[in-house]
Amino acid sequence: MTLSTERHASLSANLPLLTGILRGIEKEGLRVDNRGVLAKTPHPVALGSALTNPKITTDYSEALLELITGTQSSVQGLLHELEDTHRFVAQQLQDELIWNQSMPAHLPPEADIPIAWYGTSNTGMLKHVYRRGLAERYGKAMQCIAGVHYNFSFPDQLWDVLGTPGSTLQDKRSKGYLGLIRNFSRNSWLLMYLFGASPAVSKSFMKDIEHGLVHLDDDTLYLPYATSLRMSDFGYQNKAQSDLHLCYNDIETFISRIYDAVTTPWPPYQAIGTHRNGEWIQLNTNLLQIENEFYSSIRPKRTTGRCERPSTALAARGVQYVEIRCLDIDHTSPIGISAQTSYFMDAFLLFCAAEDSPLFPQSGFCQDSHDNFSQVAKEGRKPGLTLIKQNQPISLIDWGKQLLEQIRPYADMLDSAYGGTHYAAAVQAQYIKIHDSEQTPSAQLLQRLRDEAISLHDFTLRESQQHRDTLLAAPLDSARQQEYRKLAADSLQEQTRLEQSDVEDFASYVARYHAALKKPELTATEP
Asked: DSSP letters of 213-241?
């Protein structure tokens, strides 16, 4: 009996444990006006404080909303909460709406793209200055790309059921999640193929970037077989990070490499400096200002306290959950993600955790996995496309079918645990996409644009308006509406409290924040 078979049998004998899975969503979306142009208005007061509202915040730009759910024990509960938040926001936006596409709307000149503002507290200024640094390093337009982040965790007992090695629960948990991440890295190309929904972009977005994109119309550029330009090198480009490869073989080496990245000066950033005309423009001149600047499709995560560094929290308390960052916005859904996708994600992540997950090469980086992901993002629907699996070529179709067959038993387990057939149905629905690439979201979007002779911008604007109308047609009941209003009001009071309680100057706060980063001890796996 193989290790995977043993784990499968052990899971089957402990199905109730699977109902302890928790999932959450962070869904981004640009605020735009009724012409589909990026809104330059401040974050609406009716939505509360972007710094302290736990459900409604902003990401890079003042106009880039981020709607956050709590952790939910079911897909139904997860999407119900996300829909409620979208309804509340739609009611408050008045003459604006949420752009329901990963690639940005028409953007103003770079200088006019507003960077998110979080008030004058040290915590708020740290977030703002970090974003100023992103603008200096990568440009503002790139920061306006949006996606759906899927947060996922297992109950602690799962690691014993799977036989995950480790001397303590924290050790088992970290080893288990890193094993999941390695398998995710090997197989995440499948998510790009099945759910990638950004094969095109408005021409204005690429105006200063050399590209080999094709004109679909006067305003739309695309790649014929692309699934996700957002997750390709046309999306979040980052020359400084191109050679930065974190190691997912063990938590100690992962933290050590993150530490090096956030403490090693980078000459082009040194040339920029941290101040201009007496104002902060970046937090430091290192390769990464902070840990979150590293752009990846999945991250090991741990909740942090105020002024606590993410890597320090990971070192102290281990991995708590994983954050999947490669999902494009589903433009057909008013909330940017469908129930079917969420069910599939649960089954896929359970598969990644339970299957054998050999260590990567000593470098901790698997070039084939990286190349497969990039290739599928740019040409995943290309007829006869081959990928590399265990150093051997394999057709995307053959590997895709193999993966769905491997994921199917885990979907059946989840259905047995929760009741119903949602998980099996979600996996079954993907087979048609494997057999016929024209059924993928990316192909379907391009076909709609061709059939209707409409630009991506005009199509997305129309859909975003329709989604707004759908949300407004079913408003929140008065009790739920009051909950959101109270959250918004309380968050404004909390921001004020933080601003009034700060007695430390910002330079000292930044210095203390950097000093909170603890140098990790080297291990046998890291020379």
From this structure: -EESSSSEEE-TT-SBSTTSTTSS--TTT
Residues in CB range of 251: below 8 A, 6 or more apart: 174, 175, 178, 300, 314, 315, 318, 319
Q: Collapsing DSSP states into helix, strand and coil, what is residue 140?
A: coil
Radius of gyration, alpha carbons of the chain: 23
Q: How many CB atoms lie within 10 A of CB 243?
A: 8
Determine what percent of the chain is predicted with pLDDT higher than 90: 88
What digits encode the pLDDT tens for the residues 230-241? 999 876 555 567
The encoded tokens of residue 384 equal: 């006869």
Q: Dihedral through CA 281, CA 284, CA 287, CA 292, nearest 10?
A: -80
Task: Choose among 367, 426, 376: nearest CA to 399.
Answer: 376
Closest by CA to 313, choosing from 59, 520, 152, is 520
Indicate the pLDDT class of residue 526, thresholds 50, 70 and 90.
Answer: very low
Round to whole Å and give the CA distance between 131 and 187.
32
Taking the C-alpha atoms of residue 12 and residue 385, their distance in angstroms, rounded to an integer, is 36
User: Of the candidates 451, 396, 483, 367, which has an alpha carbon nearest to the alpha carbon of residue 54?
Assistant: 483
Query: Whole-angstrom Cα distance, residue 510 to residue 502?
Result: 13
pTM of this structure: 0.96
pLDDT tens digits, one per residue of 446-494: 999 999 999 999 999 999 999 999 999 999 999 999 999 999 999 999 9
Mean pLDDT along residues 370-393: 96
Q: No. of H helices and E strands in the chain?
A: 18, 14
